[in-house]
Amino acid sequence: MPETLHLDLDAIELQASDLIGWDNLTDCWPAENKWDWEVGHRSEGGNTYPVLTVSTAGYGAAYDTEKMARYHAAVRPAAVLSLIAEIKALRKDSERYRVLREADIDTIHNGGLLAGLTPDNIVVNGQHLDERVDAVIEARKRVTP
């Protein structure tokens, strides 16, 4: 199982935002020496220059050079910013769901926000809420291809 990493999304977002003008890092190709790979390009004075050169041959891992170059071409600033926005939205949805999941069973009598079943008018929380939500998700999958 991979180790759990703490993602400082704000710091990563700042770094990716600083590189927004470098969206030309989407392509990669073998370098002239056939060992290295180039990532991205910059055109100046009618000439095109690679932005990054990936070389793993000197570390006894020449077979990883292309994979690493393709990774760097895929993980460009716009992609990172899109992932961060999605993670933040998912975290917010998770936080909202936890409010409902952790609602006291007496919420219906005491007032407050709750998830309930109708027409039974009962509060559903914890594992019971998870099971009901999962059942609705599965039912929707069967209806919507």
Short description:
This protein is α+β, with helices and mostly antiparallel strands. It contains five helices and five strands.
Keywords:
145 residues; alpha+beta; three-stranded antiparallel β-sheet; two-stranded antiparallel sheet; 5 helices; 5 strands; 16% strand
Q: Would you write up a description of this structure?
A:
There is one protein chain. The protein is α+β, with helices and mostly antiparallel strands. Among the domains are: 24-75, no CATH class; 102-145, no CATH class. The protein has helices at residues 9-18, 65-74, 77-101, 107-110, 126-143, and strands at 28-30, 37-44, 47-54, 116-117, 122-123. The strands form 2 sheets. Strands 1-2-3 form a 3-stranded antiparallel β-sheet, covered by helices on one side. Helix 1 packs antiparallel against helix 3 (77-101). The two termini are 33 Å apart. The mean pLDDT is 88.
